[in-house]
DNA sequence: CGTTCCTCTCTTTTT
DNA sequence: GAGAGGAACG
C-alpha cells in the first residue's frame, strides 16, 4: 500500500519528556536498553509511553530500521506506527513494525527458502485452511474419520493451531483441551501430519506457520546462519499487548532479543482476552522468571475515564483471583455515575440506544463518532442495526463479515492467487467451479494437474514438483479432453489467463478489472440477486488493489489485514460522522466519550460456554473490564429482561453476574427506569 | 457428471 | 440468514 510520510535527514524530535510524560511514564522511556516489562493499566498512556521510548531510541542515534516493533492486532500496530511517525516525522516503513504475522510474513518472503518455502507462497485464511483440512480427511479415507465422533475440519484446524501456539504436540493439546478425542489421538495426529505436508505441496502457509517457521529459522541449528542474520538486523525489540501473546510468540520474542538484549514489553494482565486462540497470560508473569534481570515498571495513572467509571471497573476486576491486584488512579474530575438500564427486550434495547444517541447528538452536539456501542458478539447488534437504519442514524460496524471474506471477493481473489502461486490448488478449485459445465469432479482433476500435484495420468508428483507448467498450456490441454460446456469453459479460461499473464495484467488492480470484465461480471449476473452491489464491491477492490505494484504483496496484505466490515468499505458516499458498533475484542485500545454495552445477560455476557469454567469466566470478566474502561465520560450498561423465543416460549433473562456482583455500597452504578411515553405525547 | 433445491446447523471473541 | 451437505433430477 502506498503510504506517505515526510522524512527529514536528521530527525528533530518535538519531544519534551518533562512536559509530555508523568514520572511513571518517564521511568519507562528513560530506562536504559535492557529487559523491561511495563505493567500498564487501561488508559494509562501505554501507547504514548512506548512511542516516546521509540522516539528516544531514534533520537539517540538508532536507525528506525533497526527497531522491531510488534503488536498483536493490526489496529494497535497501525496506531503505534502512526504515532511514532507523527511524533518524529520519520518513516517507519523500513522498520519491522506491525503484527507478528506481518513481520513473520516479511521475514519468510526473504528467508523462507531455508524452511522449504517458495518466495511466492500463498497465505491460507482460516476458511481455506478448513477446506484443505476437509479434503485431507476425505482423501485419507480411513474408517475412523467418517465416524460421527471424529472432529470436523474446523476443530482439527483448531487443534493444530493450539499445538502451534503452545509449542506442544498434538497429543498434549488433546489431553489438555480436547479430552473428548483422547481415543482418537493417533488418527488425528496422522491427519494433521498430512495437512502439514499438503500445505507444503501447495506452497502455502497458514497463519500459525508464519510464526512457526520464523521460530524454526531462529532455533533450528540447520539455519544458524540465517538466525544470525535475523538477529543482527535489529538492535531493539518492543512489544505491545504482551498479555495477548502465546508461548510461540513469547519464544520468538526471546530469540529475537537474545543477542542485543534490548527488549521492552508492555501489557496489562487485566486485559488479556485472547486465550481462546492460545494467548497465555501466564507469559506476562513468566517474563520475570525467564528474564531474572528484567525491570518491572507500572503505569497506573488513568487519564481516560472519570473516577466513577474507574471505580466500577476496579471493583469488577478485583473479583478475579488470577491477577496482579492493582488499582487505577483517576486524575479526571468526577462525572456522571454509570447507568444500569434494564429493558423489556432486545427491541427496546435497540430503541433506547438509538434514542439516547440522538439525544446526545442533538441536545449536547456530540458527534456520532464520539459514541460507541459494544457487545460480546456481532449477533448482539442485529436489532440495534435495524433500529439505527430505521431512524437514519449513520453507523459503522467494526465487526461482522469481513469484506474480503465475502464470496465474490474470495472468488476474484482466487484468480490472483492462482496466477501468483500456480500450486495453489484451492484457488484453482474455487475459480474452476465458477464456470458453467464444470462441477466438482472436473474442477478437482484440472486443479490438481494445474497445481502440479498430479500429472495428467493422475499420478502424484514428488515435491518439489519442478518448474510449474505454463498455465494456459495446461488449460488448453485439459480443454481437449473435456467435452460440452466444460470444453468451452476451459478454452475461455485459457484465454483469460493469457491476458492475465500479459504485462498489463501484472498489477493486481488491473488484473481484477480483467477478471471481472472477462468473466466474473457475467457470473455475478447469473448467480446473485444483488449482482450490482457485488460488482461495485469489486470495483472498490480493484481500486484498492491498484495501490500495490506486486500482487503477492497485495495478497499477503489482504490475508493478514484486520476485518474491515463490508459496510465500512462498500459505501462510498456516506457521512464521516458515524456511530461506532464494535465487538469488545475489536474495541480494545480505543476510547470514546460515551459507551453503551449491550446484552449484559448471564449466558450472553458472560457467554454460556464461559459459565462452565472459572478460568473462562475470569477471561469474560476481563472482557467486561475492557468494555467499561473504553468509556471516558458516560457509560451505559444495558440488558433486556425477557426474550421472546422464535418458536419456543418467552424466557426471563437474568442480568449478568458482572452487574449483580457489583451491587453493594457504595454504589458504582445508578439504575434507570424506562417508562414508555404514550404515542400522543411523543415529539 | 452437473445442477438445483432442500434441510440442517450454527454463532464468541482474531491473526 | 448463511453456508455446508445431501437428495433428486436432468
UniProtKB/TrEMBL annotation:
Residues 307-589 form the UvrD-like helicase C-terminal domain. GO terms for biological process: recombinational repair. GO terms for molecular function: 3'-5' DNA helicase activity; ATP binding; ATP hydrolysis activity; DNA binding. It catalyses: ATP + H2O = ADP + phosphate + H(+); Couples ATP hydrolysis with the unwinding of duplex DNA by translocating in the 3'-5' direction. Coiled coil: none annotated. InterPro entries: DExx_box_DNA_helicase_dom_sf, DNA_helicase_UvrD-like_C, DNA_helicase_UvrD/REP, P-loop_NTPase, UvrD-like_ATP-bd. Transmembrane segments: none annotated. Its EC number is 5.6.2.4. Belongs to the helicase family. UvrD subfamily. It holds the Pfam family UvrD-helicase. Keywords: ATP-binding, Helicase, Hydrolase, Isomerase, Nucleotide-binding. Residues 19-306 form the UvrD-like helicase ATP-binding domain. ATP binds at residues 40-47. GO terms for cellular component: cytosol. It is an enzyme of class 5 (isomerase). It comes from the Bacteria. This is DNA 3'-5' helicase. The keyword Hydrolase applies.
